[in-house]
TrEMBL record:
Keywords assigned by UniProt, alphabetized: DNA condensation, DNA-binding
Gene Ontology terms: biological process: chromosome condensation
One Gene Ontology CC term in the entry: cytosol
Superkingdom of origin organism: Bacteria
Family, as annotated: Belongs to the bacterial histone-like protein family.
Keyword DNA-binding: yes
Pfam family, one: Bac_DNA_binding
MF (Gene Ontology): DNA binding; structural constituent of chromatin
Protein's UniProt keywords contain DNA-binding: yes
PANTHER family, A to Z: DNA-BINDING PROTEIN HU (PTHR33175), DNA-BINDING PROTEIN HU-BETA (PTHR33175:SF3)
Gene3D superfamilies xref list: IHF-like DNA-binding proteins (4.10.520.10)
Species assigned in the record: Blastococcus aurantiacus
Protein name per its UniProtKB record: DNA-binding protein HU-beta
Phylogenetic lineage: Bacteria, Bacillati, Actinomycetota, Actinomycetes, Geodermatophilales
Length: 95
Protein backbone atom coordinates (compact mmCIF):
# COMPACT_ATOMS: atom_id res chain seq x y z
CA UNK A 1 0.00 0.00 0.00
CA UNK A 2 1.44 3.37 -0.99
CA UNK A 3 0.64 6.76 0.52
CA UNK A 4 -2.18 7.57 -1.92
CA UNK A 5 -3.86 4.22 -1.23
CA UNK A 6 -3.45 4.75 2.52
CA UNK A 7 -4.97 8.23 2.35
CA UNK A 8 -7.89 6.90 0.33
CA UNK A 9 -8.52 3.98 2.69
CA UNK A 10 -8.41 6.16 5.82
CA UNK A 11 -10.65 8.80 4.23
CA UNK A 12 -13.21 6.14 3.38
CA UNK A 13 -13.03 4.49 6.82
CA UNK A 14 -13.21 7.77 8.76
CA UNK A 15 -15.69 9.39 6.36
CA UNK A 16 -13.57 12.55 5.96
CA UNK A 17 -12.15 14.21 2.84
CA UNK A 18 -8.92 12.75 1.46
CA UNK A 19 -7.33 16.21 1.60
CA UNK A 20 -7.86 16.26 5.37
CA UNK A 21 -6.27 12.83 5.78
CA UNK A 22 -3.35 13.87 3.58
CA UNK A 23 -2.81 16.97 5.73
CA UNK A 24 -2.89 14.90 8.92
CA UNK A 25 -0.35 12.41 7.52
CA UNK A 26 1.89 15.30 6.45
CA UNK A 27 1.62 16.75 9.96
CA UNK A 28 2.44 13.37 11.48
CA UNK A 29 5.50 13.07 9.25
CA UNK A 30 6.73 16.55 10.20
CA UNK A 31 6.23 15.91 13.91
CA UNK A 32 8.01 12.55 13.76
CA UNK A 33 10.98 14.16 11.99
CA UNK A 34 11.08 16.98 14.57
CA UNK A 35 10.85 14.53 17.49
CA UNK A 36 13.65 12.34 16.11
CA UNK A 37 15.78 15.45 15.54
CA UNK A 38 15.24 16.47 19.18
CA UNK A 39 16.01 12.93 20.37
CA UNK A 40 12.48 12.34 21.66
CA UNK A 41 10.76 8.97 21.61
CA UNK A 42 7.28 8.87 20.04
CA UNK A 43 4.93 6.14 21.24
CA UNK A 44 1.44 5.53 19.85
CA UNK A 45 0.02 2.93 22.24
CA UNK A 46 -0.83 -0.33 20.54
CA UNK A 47 0.50 0.83 17.17
CA UNK A 48 4.20 1.66 17.20
CA UNK A 49 7.12 3.34 18.89
CA UNK A 50 9.69 5.43 17.00
CA UNK A 51 13.01 6.50 18.54
CA UNK A 52 16.49 7.61 17.56
CA UNK A 53 19.29 5.20 18.42
CA UNK A 54 23.04 5.25 18.00
CA UNK A 55 25.04 2.69 16.10
CA UNK A 56 28.64 2.49 17.27
CA UNK A 57 31.65 2.54 14.97
CA UNK A 58 32.66 -0.86 13.65
CA UNK A 59 34.92 -2.64 11.20
CA UNK A 60 33.29 -3.87 8.01
CA UNK A 61 34.38 -5.54 4.80
CA UNK A 62 34.05 -4.31 1.24
CA UNK A 63 32.16 -7.15 -0.50
CA UNK A 64 33.82 -6.49 -3.88
CA UNK A 65 37.45 -6.35 -2.77
CA UNK A 66 37.37 -8.06 0.62
CA UNK A 67 39.26 -5.09 2.06
CA UNK A 68 38.43 -4.16 5.66
CA UNK A 69 36.98 -0.70 6.18
CA UNK A 70 36.10 1.38 9.20
CA UNK A 71 32.41 2.30 9.40
CA UNK A 72 31.76 5.48 11.38
CA UNK A 73 29.30 5.74 14.24
CA UNK A 74 25.86 6.94 13.15
CA UNK A 75 22.40 7.82 14.40
CA UNK A 76 19.56 5.69 13.11
CA UNK A 77 15.82 5.29 13.67
CA UNK A 78 14.25 2.31 15.40
CA UNK A 79 10.57 1.52 14.81
CA UNK A 80 8.99 -1.05 17.12
CA UNK A 81 5.60 -2.58 16.41
CA UNK A 82 2.96 -2.14 19.11
CA UNK A 83 0.75 -4.84 20.57
CA UNK A 84 -2.09 -4.39 18.04
CA UNK A 85 0.29 -4.75 15.07
CA UNK A 86 1.98 -7.76 16.63
CA UNK A 87 -1.40 -9.38 17.31
CA UNK A 88 -2.54 -8.75 13.71
CA UNK A 89 0.69 -10.23 12.30
CA UNK A 90 0.51 -13.33 14.47
CA UNK A 91 -3.11 -13.97 13.46
CA UNK A 92 -2.10 -14.51 9.82
CA UNK A 93 -1.10 -18.11 9.04
CA UNK A 94 2.50 -18.65 7.95
CA UNK A 95 2.65 -19.62 4.31
Amino acid sequence: MNKAELVSAIAKRADVPASTVDAVIAGLQEELVDAITRGDKVAVSGLLTVERTQRSARTGRNPQTGETIEIAAANTVKVTAGSNLKKAASAVPVS
